[in-house]
């Protein structure tokens, strides 16, 4: 028996029965992003490993255990399949000097790779759409990013299934002061910390609070709050952000424990969460990363962005039956007999040139079975060509969905007739 091959675990094929749903979702996204003035950027799927370690942070889930890293056997470089989109985008921005006299608003869409345990809403190859708005320091862009995502939920019809959680992480000094207090607090509770917690106590104490362990919730709830350590500027920024979102009529809850799993965030952070997908409830997550451009070798520039898990949004759309029906072709061309193939192919080309989508039946089959296929295709019209029609220079037009009498018209009148029937 010959070997059969299977896709890599946690990496999924998207087959036609589902790919049209992706196309619909991507179409809504492209329109939305254009409406807000974002421009597309396309960066490689593979980057040098140090880029991710440096930007995402050494002590994070992603860098500690989730990256697909390999050695380029040609030169010994360590390379990594991108686990997220911000690092590569900012690498490109710095490399090509896109911030020179400009405040670019960029978006990307594509596959990301993380070595996780596959389950519903969590895969090893998954897709994110994300934006990065660079060079703008004020809370107005933070609010516009929220407004845009809220607008997306409205356009998709899922506003009622998602909620917005926000927090402010302050700046580096404020986080350092809070960190010290937090370490002291965690040391007092070291006896109840789990493995992860003990390991992170000194390396990433904020993440200890991000625990999902129920036994640690009380401890986490009573820990020193970052909000109490925010200085004047950070507080004003946070207040400005909240006031604008509220004035736009967008509901949110403040979650003082929202810290995000990547190191580069500061000030505004947010997550859009749903309760409809079980444990994998975060559909979109992001925030401000004012130090990252400089950290990656560019001239200091503020930035804010988000990454959205496209599979999770699609799961929600499927679950709520909010996806349109699969689009079918306009015309199915039934043809049989001497010379019918070429006669029909020329006709099909004329129709396509006029804007119709057409499937011409290819291969031997009876009229009856071809008509069945025409019906199953979802096409609005069947055009029928047999030897009689060729001899008379005609085509039969049959409406498949509407109650219209079948007609036989001259071949050069097909376009006009179809147009009148559609009207
Ligand atoms: P989680 O807490 O679910 O692991 P995260 O904090 O690791 O998420 P981010 O790095 O912020 O996620 O990525 C942004 C979004 O990408 C997530 O909110 C989620 O919607 C999606 N996402 C992240 N990891 C996966 C995955 N393995 N499979 C599918 N979607 C994912
Ligand atoms: Mg994760």
From TrEMBL:
Its main location: cytoplasm. Keywords: Aminoacyl-tRNA synthetase, ATP-binding, Cytoplasm, Ligase, Nucleotide-binding, Protein biosynthesis. PROSITE patterns: AA_TRNA_LIGASE_II. Residues 1-317 form the Aminoacyl-transfer RNA synthetases class-II family profile domain. Its EC number is 6.1.1.21. It catalyses: tRNA(His) + L-histidine + ATP = L-histidyl-tRNA(His) + AMP + diphosphate + H(+). The keyword ATP-binding applies. One of its GO terms (molecular function) is ligase activity. Pfam families: HGTP_anticodon, tRNA-synt_His. It is found in: Cytoplasm. InterPro entries: aa-tRNA-synth_II (IPR006195), aa-tRNA-synth_II/BPL/LPL (IPR045864), Anticodon-bd (IPR004154), Anticodon-bd_dom_sf (IPR036621), His-tRNA-ligase (IPR015807), HisRS-like_core (IPR041715), HisRS/HisZ (IPR004516), HisRS_anticodon (IPR033656). Homodimer. Belongs to the class-II aminoacyl-tRNA synthetase family. This is Histidine--tRNA ligase.
């Amino acid at each position: 028996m010959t070997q059969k091959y299977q896709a890599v675990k946690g990496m999924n094929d998207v087959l036609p029965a589902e790919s049209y749903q992706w196309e619909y979702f991507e179409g809504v996204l492209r329109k939305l992003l254009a409406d807000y003035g974002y421009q597309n950027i396309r960066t490689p799927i593979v980057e040098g490993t140090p880029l991710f370690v440096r930007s995402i942070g050494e002590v994070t889930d992603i860098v500690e255990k989730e990256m697909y890293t390999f050695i380029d056997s040609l030169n010994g470089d360590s390379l990594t399949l991108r686990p997220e989109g911000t690092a590569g985008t900012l690498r490109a921005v710095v490399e090509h000097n896109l911030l020179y006299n400009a405040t670019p608003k960029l978006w990307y869409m594509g596959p990301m790779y993380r070595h996780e345990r596959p389950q519903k809403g969590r895969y090893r190859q998954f897709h994110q759409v994300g934006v990065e708005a660079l060079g703008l320091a004020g809370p107005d862009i933070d609010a516009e990013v929220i407004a845009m995502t809220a607008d997306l939920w409205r356009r998709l019809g899922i506003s009622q299934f998602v909620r917005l959680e926000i927090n402010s992480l302050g700046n580096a000094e404020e986080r350092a002061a809070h960190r010290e207090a937090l370490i002291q607090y965690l040391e007092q509770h070291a006896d109840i910390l789990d493995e992860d917690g003990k390991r992170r106590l000194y390396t990433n104490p904020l993440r200890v609070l991000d625990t999902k362990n129920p036994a640690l919730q009380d401890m986490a709830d009573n820990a020193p709050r970052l909000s109490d350590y925010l200085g004047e500027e950070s507080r004003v920024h946070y207040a400005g952000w909240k006031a604008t979102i509220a004035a736009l009529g967008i509901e949110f809850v403040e979650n003082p424990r929202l810290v995000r799993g990547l190191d580069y965030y500061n000030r505004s952070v947010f997550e859009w969460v749903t309760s409809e997908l079980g444990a994998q409830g975060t559909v979109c997550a992001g925030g401000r990363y004012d130090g990252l451009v400089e950290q990656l070798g560019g001239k200091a520039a503020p930035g804010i962005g988000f990454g959205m898990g496209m599979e999770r949004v699609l799961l929600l759309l499927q679950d709520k039956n909010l996806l349109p029906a699969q689009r079918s072709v306009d015309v199915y061309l039934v043809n049989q007999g001497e010379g019918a193939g070429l006669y029909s192919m020329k006709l099909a080309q004329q129709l396509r040139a006029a804007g119709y989508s057409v499937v011409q039946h290819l291969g031997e089959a009876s009229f009856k079975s071809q008509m069945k296929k025409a019906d199953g295709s979802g096409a609005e019209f069947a055009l029928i060509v047999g030897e009689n029609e060729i001899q008379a220079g005609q085509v039969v037009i049959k409406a498949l969905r509407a109650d219209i009498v079948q007609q036989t018209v001259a071949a050069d009148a097909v376009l006009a007739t179809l147009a009148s029937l559609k009207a």
